[in-house]
Amino acid sequence: MFGSLARRLTAWYVFVAVALVVLLAGAVIAVGLVFYAHDANDQIAALAREVPDIEARAGSEHDDWQTAQTLLLRRLARPGFTVRAQPPPTRPVNLPRDGRYGFFRYPAGTAPAQSGSLPPQSGSPAAQAGAPDRPPVPNGGAGRPPESPPFFANRFGFGAATTLGVRPAHVPFLNGFAVIFVDVDRVQSIVAFAFAALAVTAALAGLVAWGIGRYITSQALRPLYDVTSALVRFAGRDFTAQPIDVAGRSEFDELVRAYNAAADQVATAFDERAAAEAQMRQFVADAGHELRTPLTIVLGYIDLLKKRAPADERSRRIFDTIAIEGSRMRTLIDNLVLLARLEGDDRRPVEPFALTPLLEDDIVRTRRGLAPGVHIELDLGVDATIIGDRSDIYEAIANVVDNAIKYAPGSPIRIAVARDRGGVAIDIGDRGPGIARADRELIFDRFYRGSRRVEVEGSGLGLAIAKRAIERAGGTLTLVTTSEAGSTFRVVLRADTVAPRAAAARG
User: Is 96 contained in some domain?
Assistant: First the structure.
């Protein structure tokens, strides 16, 4: 109940929480990366300012390129930064007009000469004409264009660094140049760590939000759960008053208070109804007992008058009618007294009894004698010892069989006994016209008679008595099937012992 609503509310909690955490954490990470980029640019600028001093020292000591490069790398070595000295080319290099080569832009006035010009070498005429004296380029660099520094092989790290605003410094160094930049591998690690931290933070925020959201949602919807459960219990005909506690933490508390008030009114009404029904049952039982004696006396005098009355047809018909109606009244009184007893709280001591003699002798044989034209088939699949009051169970089965005889005249009746889990099932079926659809839910109500049975005598108490008697014994009475081909009722009873029957008795 309300599971879908709870999941949707929780999902919204999770979405909002994760979005806020991601925005906040992303802002913190972005600010941190911006400060990192600003600091990196400051340190790159500081390192770039040291290059002229290193160049001057190398020139004063007339160091060769390799020695000067080693001095440069040693002096500028810093954790998190990469320094690369690029030697001057030893052959003409066709460069674009903007001085770019690969990823580099040569500093102004330091790009290699175009159209075959070479950097002045020590001892050359250009050098003697006033060109600055530079150490010769090592043989290993002869004929090679400027190479891209190794940090540019990591495109992601370079892109991340430049996106953050970090720019490489290109500083002239001994007719070549020095490139100073952050360690792009480290930048990649920092960015990857930032994204991983953001993802982990979002996941943890989602889990925490899910748990908190489930708790908040369950607490908020608790009144709805409780009220719905109580209404389901009411639908199951359990009208016991069970007030729901009002926590005072939800807008649904007013619904709980309204339900508690309604449940209290319903419980009160049912208590009053139960008290009225108890009084009615007591009245019926008392009235039945009080009416039996005078009715018996009246019927006795009617028999006496009938014998002494004139033997004319009119008198005989009057006395026969009085006798029939008196008998019907006696049957109705007996049924009302029996039903009042069955619906009361008095209980008789239960003594287990054998089912087979009750069916064979008391039910089948008796009715064959009373109605010789009725064909009753008895199929005993098992022998069972029933737990319950024998007279109550007899009344129940007899009423069901009598109903089949009355409402399906001339139809064969079949009684079949079989094992049913921990007890026995007794199916009582006929081949009559069946029960109308509108009557199927009401046939076990007191005084209810089907719309097709107006012409059949009866009080409408037979099936009500049968159902109540079976339920008092801990069993069930249900309508299994009904159609134009007949109806079948099933009686399920508790049994102490159930054993297969060697040869089923058939009649």
Answer: yes
Task: Give the whole-angstrom CA distance, residue 479 versus residue 439.
Answer: 11
Picking from 343, 374, 396, the residue at the C-terminal end of a domain is 343
Q: Where are the beta strands (DSSP E) in 422-485?
A: 423-429, 476-483
Q: How many domains does the chain have?
A: 3
Q: SS3 for 442?
A: coil
CA dihedral 111, 116, 120, 123 (to 10 degrees): 170
Last residue of a domain, one of 320, 343, 366: 343
- Please give the structure tokens belonging to residue 56: 């001057």
Which residues make Cβ contacts (< 8 Å) with residue 169, sequence separation at least 6? 44, 45, 47, 48, 179, 180, 181
- State the pLDDT at residue 123: 36
Answer yes or no: do 286 and 435 share one domain.
no
Integer distance in angstroms from the first to the last C-alpha of the chain?
A: 54
Q: Domain range for residue 361? A: 353-500
45 and 8 in a common domain:
yes
Strands 169-173 and 176-182: antiparallel
Euclidean distance between CA atoms 246 and 491, whole angstroms: 45
CA distance 363 to 118: 130
Give the domain CATH number at 415. 3.30.565.10
Question: Do the Cβ atoms of 388 and 350 come closer than 8 Å?
Answer: yes
Rounded Cα distance between 374 and 410, Å, is 6
Position 5 scores a pLDDT of 65
13 in a structural domain: yes
DSSP assignment, residue 124?
S
- Got the DSSP string for 16-33? HHHHHHHHHHHHHHHHHH
Give me Rg for the CA atoms of the chain.
53
Mean pLDDT of all residues in the chain?
Answer: 75
- Do strands 476-483 and 486-500 pair parallel, antiparallel, or not at all (unpaired)? antiparallel
In this structure, what DSSP letter does residue 358 have? Answer: I
Say how far apart CA 161 and CA 179 lie, in whole Å: 15
For strands 104-105 and 100-101, give the pairing: antiparallel
| Predicted model pTM | 0.46
Q: What is the largest CA-CA distance in the chain?
A: 175
Residues 6+ apart with CB under 8 A from 81: 40, 43, 44, 47, 180, 181, 182, 183
Measured from the Cβ of residue 328, the count of other Cβ atoms closer than 10 Å reads 13
Q: Is residue 244 part of a domain?
A: no
Helices (H), 309-350: 313-343
Query: Per-residue confidence at 139, pLDDT binned at 50, 70, 90?
Result: very low
Beta bridge partner(s), residue 481? 488
- Rounded distance, CA 29 to CA 33, Å? 6
Higher pLDDT, 225 or 43: 43
Residue 129 covered by a domain:
yes
